[in-house]
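Reminder: ligand-aware prediction takes two inputs, not one.
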Amino acid sequence: MKIPVNTASHQYEVVIGKNILKSAIESLYERLPKIDKTIVLTDQNVWEAGKDYFSANFPYPFEVFVMPPGEECKSFDNYKEAHSFLIENGCTRKSLIMAFGGGAVGDLTGFVAATYMRGVPFVQIPTTILAHDSAVGGKTAINHPQGKNLIGAFYQPKAVIYDMEFLSTLSEREIRSGMAEVIKHAMISNEKWLKEIMLIDSIANIETDKLASYLKAGIEVKAKIVAEDETEQSVRKYLNFGHTYGHAIEAAAGYGGIAHGEAVVMGIVYALLLSERYGNVSRKFTKSFLQFAYNNGYPFEAVSSYTFDSLEPFLVKDKKVEYGELQFVLLNAIGEPFMQSISLSVCREIDSEYRA
Ligand code: NAD
Ligand code: ZN
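Here is what comes back for the chain with zinc ion:
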């Protein structure tokens, strides 16, 4: 299955399915100008879990650079190490870099590719559920000690090759975290789809066919938005639904304590409470979503230990602060997002409602 992504300046495809790595890579190499060298950037966990399948199905020779796992690979130090690896291995502008991993590997690799020799082509080979979101759309970044994703670039991949074989080694927690972005895509686009998701008993055990159709639907939502607004001047902001408060939780927990998607689900509940006030979302709906999220093991108790005072410094540091007010994505109804400026005092009020 192929989903086109057409931005003003770039066109590429997301190929998604089971056991598609070999055929998708072959057809990509036929399409692209001759590649002189392939370099794979991955992380320890991904390589450990996926190297056998990857090596057996990758039809061309490659060099591999294995990085520290997850968020750790988005450090300045690792960014430098990755560049050193490219230089030492003779990577040129005719080489192709593969981002083989979750959102962290994808973000780091994309930024390395954007900056090495002022830009070399790269391909996303996502291995997490969350990465159905992060691999599409060309946002790349590393972290600064003072904030997440502060250093980055918009840089589109040549293709996204999403072989669902890789998802089989994800932990329940990673599935739960990744499903948060699926929920987000449904919340901002389609009530019927969201209601279907909310009927799932155990999100961590979602059946493969259903997951495939949800990932495809999520990628379609993202591709449509990115096509309209590649650099987040307008509608792309809607993809931050749940992320303003979510990012603050993630930061307060010291990144990793609460997984990205777990924090996003907390942020979605918070945004729904705001949407009751500024939009037409009902309390009944917020409660039913809260129950669904609680039943599925999203960590409300762990998060309750982060007080509003501990979140505030991170809320005001968010990239989405404009003229001193926080910019929230809210919903008029499910599938109808809009932007709303909100003062810190209202945020504090809603936070106490959230905890009640
Ligand atoms: P991740 O890349 O940190 O992966 C989560 C963990 O799972 C890591 O420990 C990783 O090593 C491991 N892992 C990955 N794939 C695996 C597999 N198939 N089997 C076993 N283990 C595996 O996390 P993520 O949730 O995929 O992505 C989060 C990152 O994505 C954050 O850095 C976030 O900022 C970024 N992000 C970027 C965008 C974007 O548009 N660029 C959007 C959303 C999130
Ligand atoms: Zn996210």
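The pocket of nicotinamide-adenine-dinucleotide (ligand 1) is lined by residues 43, 45-46, 49-50, 69-71, 74, 101-105, 107, 127-128, 130-131, 133-134, 137, 139, 149, 166, 169-170, 174, 177-178, 260 (CB under 6 Å). The longest helix spans residues 208-228. We will return to this case in the review session.
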